[in-house]
Amino acid sequence: MDEDQNGTSSGNFLAPSEQAVVEADIPDDVSYLEFHEGTLTLNRWNKSQIERFFGNQIWKWDDRSRLWRTLANQYSRVQKTLRERLVEAPLAVIDCVPRWQSVVFSRDDTKALRVEQQQALESWLEQQNGIVVMPTGTGKTEVALQAMKQSRCSTLIVAPIRDLMYQWHRRILQALSYDAGIIGDNTFHVKPISVTTYDSACIHMPKLGDRFQFLIFDECHHLPGAIRADAARMSIATKRLGLTATLDRSTARFESSLELIGPVVYELSIQEVRGKSLAEYDVFRIRVHLQQEERRRYDELATTVAMYVYERRQDDESFQWQQLYSEAAEDSRANRILIAHREKQAIEDRAAEKLRVIDDLLCLHHGTPIIIFAGSNRMAREVSMRFLIPCLLSHCGKKERLDYLDGLRDGVYPAIVANQILDEGVDIPAVKIAIVIGGLASNRQSQQRLGRILRKTGDERAILYEVVCQDTNEVLKSRKRRKNDAYSRTRHFKDNSSGDRT
Q1: How many Å apart are CA 142 and CA 186, to the nearest integer?
Q2: Is the dihedral of CA 124, 121, 246, 221 positive or negative?
Q3: Does residue 167 contact residue 196 with C-beta atoms inside 8 Å?
Q4: What is the structure's pLDDT at 425?
Q5: Spans of all domains in the chain
Q6: Read out DSSP for 67-85?
């Protein structure tokens, strides 16, 4: 640390300035707070002065630039400290950081908020930093649009995928008559109101972190992480709103979300709005069995994998299955075991009996739009070819996706099949039937898929079918997926090739 920065006279904290800073022109009793590459810099303070004002946790001395430096998301804290203690400040501090501006919307076509939406908005407005947790279909977007309308400041909306980015662009144009800028998908058009993706945000935030006063993180459970979190860390935004339908409090990612966005200010469960803002629904779990050859091969692969794990743990009690993925690149046996594991997963994921159940359900609900959720791209393609329905995957183009969704809405396509692309956020037609034939074990994915069919249309009831292979790992995944109140009244069916059903 450098002790040579001087200045002991009492100073004050001046209004933000656009003045270009030239070191030679700075008066001896003035210091500048600036934004630089996703960080804040402060000059002319010595170590003891920094520690007296801020402690020793925020600022770090940058010996190359000979400046104090901290992450941009500390701006509110730094600003508050300087304003509260300006009489004690060793130097007058000129704030050159923010480049945001006020925004005027020419038209307001936002929807009137329902009771729970208004409660969410008011809860957020109390501190203008925090996370709103509401089930899919309850109108989190409308809450965010109202927050934007009331804030009237430079705003960046961050979405997990391009489809959602463009969806936000359309909603802002429809509701507020504002043609937002787009940052992402080979486009870099920055405006006071802009939309982007998490990946683009963390890439461009070093240059844009001082441009937006308000950050909205859609599906904010995607934010925590070594790289994506930079979208929040490198921004000076003083207003932050996180939107999600699911929030896992049991992981470190939850604590990171609180640090980067703010506390959970409002939370609503599916049960609270079931049959009110959301449709009433039923969940049916249909058990199927592997065919004889599938069962033989599945058991053979399961034994091979189990023996490998047993042998490894005899030598190393701390061995975890996740280590296999890194070891497979250098160890031929580990690679063979990983291939066997994936083949075992493929058997349960693409069991022949699942196709027969899908056939039955398509006939049962003939004339009603249906979404089929697969557990892999390969299974999604098999279902698509077997039943001649569109297959919606992550690499499908924007026009192709819109065509599929519009076709489902207009009755051109009786059903569509997708892997994970429709799990969250993307607006889909008022579909009331979903068939889940594979997926992750997470509560988040199960709630999001259920939420796809819960948008209320009259008194129509929604139905989710979960097709599970008996005596496979899918049973365990299903049990984990159903550890939330949304699946509390699941009804169970047994389906086998003999036609015996209960």
Answers
A1: 28
A2: negative
A3: no
A4: 59
A5: 13-95, 115-268, 281-290+351-494, 292-348
A6: EEEEEGGGHHHHHHHHHHT
d(CA 370, CA 382): 17
Q: May I ask the CATH class of domain 281-290+351-494?
A: alpha beta
Report pLDDT for 499: 41
- Give yes or no for a contact between 149 and 172, defined as CB atoms under 8 angstroms apart: no
Assign domain 115-268 to its CATH architecture. 3-Layer(aba) Sandwich (3.40)
User: Cα(61)–Cα(67) distance, rounded to whole angstroms?
Assistant: 6
Distance CA 125, CA 421 (A): 32
Predicted TM-score (pTM) of the model is 0.83
The parts of the chain modelled with pLDDT lower than 50 are: 1-13, 15-24, 497-502
> How confident is the model at residue 497, as a pLDDT?
47
Q: In what order do the strands lie in the sheet with 193-197?
A: 187-189, 181-184, 193-197, 155-159, 214-218, 239-244, 129-133, 264-267
Q: Pick 13-95's CATH classification: 1.10.510.10, 3.40.50.2000, 1.10.10.10, 3.40.1170.30.
A: 3.40.1170.30
Quick one: CA torsion of 213, 219, 225, 228, rounded to 10 degrees?
-50
End-to-end CA distance of the chain: 74
Q: Beta-carbon neighbour count of residue 249 at 10 Å?
A: 10
The string of DSSP letters for 325-350 reads HHHTTT-HHHHHHHHHHHHHHHHHHT
What's the rounded Cα separation, in Å, for the pair 105 and 100? 16
* Residues 6 or more apart in contact with residue 197 via CB below 8 angstroms: 158, 159, 160, 161, 162, 164, 165, 184, 185
Question: CA 132 to CA 140: how far, in whole Å?
Answer: 8
| Count of alpha carbons within 13 angstroms of residue 210, beta-carbon side | 20
Q: What is the DSSP letter of 26?
A: S
Distance CA 422, CA 372 (A): 10
Helix axes 162-176, 140-151, angle to 10 degrees: 60
pLDDT of residue 426: 67
Same topology, domains 13-95 and 115-268? Answer is: no
Quote the CA–CA distance of 147 and 144 in Å, as a whole number.
Answer: 5
- Map tokens 């607006």 to a residue: 427
